[in-house]
Amino acid sequence: MRWVGVCPYPYVKVHCASMDSYTVLRVIGEGSFGRALLVQPKDDSGQYVVKEIRLPKTHSGQESSRTEAVLLSRLKHTNIVAFRESFEADGHLYIVMEYCAGGDLLQRIKQQKSTLFSVDVVLRWFAQMCLGAKHIHDKRVLHRDLKSKNIFLTDNGTIKLGDFGSACVLNSSKAYAYSYVGTPYYVSPEIWDSRPYNNKSDVWSLGCVLYELCTLHHPFQARSWKSLILKVCRGAYPPLPNHLPYELHYLLKQMFKTNPRDRPSLNTILTSHRISRLLQKHLPPQQLQREAPSRWKKEEGERVAVFLGQKSLIETTSSVGGSMQEAQSGHEREHSRRKWAGGLPNTVMQVLENADIISSPSMASGSSFDSSAGGALPGTQRTSPRRQWDRGTPDRLLSLLDKAYQSMASKTYTVHKMDVEGPLMGPLSETGLTP
Ligand SMILES: Nc1ncnc2c1ncn2[C@@H]1O[C@H](COP(=O)(O)OP(=O)(O)OP(=O)(O)O)[C@@H](O)[C@H]1O
């Protein structure tokens, strides 16, 4: 193998290491961009995860792929997966990060079968998720793909937010984003409705994770994509079990407000919301003291922004709740994500409203958690690279939806807004046809 001997990109401080410095212990899993490997440095007894990401051919695609490394390297927090180093070789980007031996929360939820987590566990984990997410919002970064599969546990039970492959840095100069990366089960109503998204969209997604922790089910279960989107847009979810404290019921109601303005920011949840005292009780005191907003200094933010191609980052530094109302998309791995383009002149919602009910016969109970079944239509290989979704008319989309596994709603997609990619593009056409 040939390793690149120079630092491949200027901003991330890399030691220009290579995989030669690591022993691969095993493959942990395969994502749509490549593999995750458990490794051990040759000069150290620790264990780390290396994400091996195939770099696309285009320059812009490569820059987008590097976003995860750039952001992760700048986001240091107890509740965010720690970055170690990154390097490139043979057309791949390698990101070495902390290994979370407790696995992801989706696995933990599945392991519970039907035994609910105790309220203490739910509050402890949720409080840590809020701290991690607040940290990134303070730095004007949106995660955009918060879901139980992207939230990890260490062996001592600490929560870590991971997978920043869909994250973006906010840019206050544009009214709102033209595209969004997210997972249908966790995507907020404003995304489906082609309205601006911001930090409150992450709050919605965390609401979904909180609900999953409380019930072991997703809040917006549906037999079809259309019905899923309708439920999300109405904020209609089955009530939480009665034994849970009133504060949790109340909080979830607020997090699932369909208008993002009515949703609390993470700062509010942690400091002034009715539940904040309950959450504070579940955090170690030393962590609480450290939680003063830690924004990037203007220069540091600008350096990240320049690297990511968004030069007006951090023009304003007012509080997250107010200043992040209007957000612009950062880079995504658009070259390889599933894509769902907003239709002209209708939003995705309107198109689906006018469509026949879409049946999804493969939706078995609990299949929403079965992400191993998702990600590909029958007959396609899970390991094949993500393709651009086939451009097509709404009719075509709906016929694709008809055949699709509902469980694909737990996979990550790019949702495109109108005017950008033409009419609605189906997210379920992994046929290998690129537009
Ligand atoms: N830091 C980590 N510690 C422990 N396990 C991890 C870590 N990062 C990723 N994993 C696990 O590695 C596997 C692959 O992760 P990866 O993020 O590459 O893809 P994915 O999340 O499965 O798919 P995609 O990113 O396409 O949605 C997953 O099972 C994930 O739980």
From TrEMBL:
Residues 318-328 have a biased composition (Polar residues). Pfam families: Pkinase. GO terms for molecular function: ATP binding; metal ion binding; protein serine/threonine kinase activity. ATP binds at residue 51. InterPro entries: Kinase-like_dom_sf, Prot_kinase_dom, Protein_kinase_ATP_BS, Ser-Thr/Tyr_kinase_cat_dom, Ser/Thr_kinase_AS. Gene3D superfamilies: Phosphorylase Kinase, domain 1, Transferase(Phosphotransferase) domain 1. This is non-specific serine/threonine protein kinase. It comes from Anguilla anguilla (European freshwater eel).
